[in-house]
């Protein structure tokens, strides 16, 4: 049993240590992705490639793209591959990703025996699920008035304000004029009521005193006419007292 484990370690573990890079990459539809697979010094002059994992029971490469010799870039369709031997890295770029590009890929290096490889999973999400882009600090400051106005309650445009301003001023003036007219009418009505009340009291008081005077015992058995009674009251000074008395009653 231990022998089998040692044999498996000799066959598998070197492949995991020979290449390093991202294990998973997530992008949205239409994006461009660039990844780097680094390899060991002893693999500098070996042939590198990029391929898609195929097969179920027996994994195999499909659509293999080989890097050019002496650092030349190779492009096929929407994929380019470049072997940077100075940095010991294989650079792979995929443009304009589609949903069909999602899957598992290999960065590989040919050598005697099993190739050295790194398995990478690529996830591609629909472009409609892309979150809104975040503005940088400068753009956010410049766009802050527009963003604040968009997030707050809708505001009336400037032309609409210019149209409504005269109407609002006119309505305010009409309201003030109506209030003043109502107050004046109320004061006038109150003043007229007071005058009618005073006149009514004066008339009632004058009529009562006139009746008492004209039927006073000073002229028993006589039926005086109003003119004669008034003349008698004027001569005796009673009329003057009647005319003055209502003014005192007001107080």
TrEMBL record:
Quote the gene name from the UniProt entry: CD300LG
Which segments constitute the Ig-like domain? 14-121
Localization annotation: Membrane
Residue ranges crossing the lipid bilayer per the database entry: 163-188
> For this UniProt entry, which residues form the secretion signal?
1-18
Q: Where is the composition biased (Polar residues)?
A: 135-154
Name used for this protein in its record: CD300 molecule like family member g
Q: Cite the residue spans of the region called Disordered.
A: 131-154
Q: Which UniProt keywords apply?
A: Disulfide bond, Membrane, Signal, Transmembrane, Transmembrane helix
Which Gene3D superfamilies does the entry mention? Immunoglobulins (2.60.40.10)
A single GO CC term for this protein reads: membrane
Predominant location category: membrane
């Amino acid at each position: 049993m231990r022998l089998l484990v040692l044999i498996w370690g000799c066959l598998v573990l070197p492949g995991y240590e020979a290449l390093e890079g991202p294990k998973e990459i997530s992008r949205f539809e239409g994006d461009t992705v660039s990844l780097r697979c680094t390899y060991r010094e002893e693999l500098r002059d070996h042939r590198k490639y990029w391929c898609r994992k195929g097969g179920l029971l027996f994994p195999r490469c499909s659509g293999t793209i080989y890097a050019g010799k002496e650092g030349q870039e190779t492009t096929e369709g929407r994929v380019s591959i470049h072997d940077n031997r100075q940095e010991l890295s294989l650079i792979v770029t995929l443009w304009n990703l589609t949903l069909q590009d999602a899957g598992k890929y290999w960065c590989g290096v040919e050598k005697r025996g099993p190739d050295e490889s790194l398995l990478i999973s690529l996830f591609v999400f629909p472009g409609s699920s892309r979150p809104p882009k975040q503005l940088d600090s400068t753009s956010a400051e410049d766009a802050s008035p527009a963003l604040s106005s968009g997030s707050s309650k809708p505001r009336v445009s400037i032309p609409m304000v210019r149209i409504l301003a005269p109407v609002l001023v006119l309505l305010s003036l009409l309201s003030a004029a109506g209030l003043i007219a109502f107050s004046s009418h109320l004061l006038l009505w109150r003043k007229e009521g007071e005058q009618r009340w005073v006149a009514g009291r004066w008339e009632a008081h004058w009529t009562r005193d006139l009746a008492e005077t004209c039927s006073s015992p000073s002229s028993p058995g006589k039926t005086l006419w109003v003119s004669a009674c008034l003349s008698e009251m004027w001569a005796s000074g009673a009329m003057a007292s009647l005319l003055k008395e209502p003014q005192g009653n007001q107080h």
